[in-house]
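Q: I have two molecules that I believe assemble together. Could you output structure tokens for the complex as a whole instead of separate predictions?
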Amino acid sequence: MKLTLVGVSHHSAPLELRERVALDPAGAAELAASLGSETIVLSTCNRTELYLVRADHAEEVAVRTLAELAGDRANELSSVLYRLRDEAAALHLFRVAAGLDSLVPGEGEILGQVRAAYEQGATGPFLDRLCRQALHAGRRVRIETGIAESPASVPAAGAALAQQVFERLDGKRVLLIGAGKMSELTARNLISRGASIAAVANRTLEHAQELAARLKTRPLALGAIGPELASVDVVVASTSAPGTVLQKADVAAALPARRGRQLLLVDLAVPRDLDPEINELEGCFLYDIDDLEAVVAETISGRRSEAARAEKLVAAEAERFREWQASLDVVPTIASLRALAEEIRDSELARAGSRLSERERRQVESVTSQILAKLLHLPTIRMKEAAAAADGVVYADVVRHLFGLEEERRSR
Amino acid sequence: MAELLVVPALLAYGEAAIAYAGELRGPGLAGRLATWGVRLGWVAQTALLVGQAASADGFPWRTWAGSLNLFVWLVVGAYLIWGCKPRYRLLGLAVMPVAALLLALAWAGGGTGLAEGGGSGRVLALHVGLMLAGFAGLTLAAGMASLYLWQERRLKRHERGVLRVRVPPLDALDRLAARTVLASLVMLALGIGVGASRFERGDFDAAMGVTFAILGVYASLLVLRYEGRRGRRAALLNLAGFALVAIVLPLTHFAQ
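A: Yes, here they are, computed for all two components at once.
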């Protein structure tokens, strides 16, 4: 049985082509089921990949399937498809699960997508093992390296900064100034980490009401944000106002009521909404869009340096998988050898059965069973080791020849 | 033979101090090596202290060097409560170099040998133990305050790598430092209470005066914090109190 991977990804295929072959989770599950056992379909916004384990024709099946999905653009597909086999295909899946093949190295969403593809795929023993080990590799990379720790977008950087100031965001209150897309993205990032939105303030109250309804909070007029500053922990501003909407004096006035609690202010607007001098106030930390972009650039470069460490981990996991895969070659021989030994033991016990009492028979059974286990233990281990070192087939042949396993099978 | 345990303890603490510096470049193996260094060093030092206690006739840590040995053990033990959590690892950067240095000083001063002490009662042992535990807590609180000021400075200056190095959050550092100070003050108060049972007229000396000053500074820190003076000011006051602990107290106590 051979593992075959055929797919397209953001590395080679433009979006117009990727979207042709992209599938939703239900579609991917349906396709995997239609292609039969030992198939998984991994489809995300960046890639669509088919993993098949077949004795033959796997590549043709996969290419034909993707071409059917691409429809009238099938002829463009052949130049951007990649085809990998066995160890290379396994290593590719491990790298994908670890986020090393992603647009932003180490992005976390892909691990969940690989898990979904595994759960919805038509897996057999081979792909089951491959996927579980790929997920394990992905988790190891996230735990043992710093690749996934740093944010990769401005809203995520804002939320990560909040976590540098506050231990937990559970119960922390956020004031949104501005009802734009960036405000909402940052708010949702903070909410996903446990924060709650205290209010949405905007010059046009209707827009504030719309966003407040989506975020299940209350709208506020822009002029009414002063009193809110005493109780919130994070302020996110992204209005399209031509000048500053919050002055240093406004924040300073709220500080006595805050009783020393820190305040993080994130200004995503251009031109800036928040007076830069607010950063000078004790306990106030103001970040504008340039600061956040610098943080993101730095963390992405950090992700790249962590990626080198992650590659080593993934390679080690792929090697473990290769060893397991190689050991499969000798498994039938080991099973035949054990079956032969067991058969001989059973027949000899049957012949001696009439001469032994029940107690003696049990003792002989126990002793012979232990002898077989000990005798076959080392050859089993050695054959598996040899399989991992590519000598497995030779060893298996020798064992089959020495013990007459082929003749044994034929005579049955 | 037990006195030789200071060597592995010192090596492990030193390794931890260096590895914590490596953790500054990013989380990973260095941090884990540092944590294991602290653990193994602390176990070795615990065995050393047990050996000293078993071989001594009375309280074995009466000298300044012996006290320093016990003090380092208490500091590292208190650090281990939080230091094993990945988020708090960098606290070790403020604690372990000092711990390694002080243990080396205790060794050089003869505080790690087996022939220490003798003839002291349990009251003195309890008094010294509580006082040292209190000061160890204050040392740890000072480490947290230093880390607070460093991290606050990085956040204020918008350092690009602010998210790359895992430092405990400001909020947590502020709160944990205050809790540690509170626990330390309780131990100091208990230590003073135990010592007072043997106090006689004319015993009052400069060290006692400094100890009361330390109590006053840290108590005012807690009161001010309760009043809302948290964060930077609390951290600065914490360090001012620690200056009394680290500089003035040893000079007044051991110079007698």
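A: One point stands out. The longest strand of chain A covers residues 2-9.
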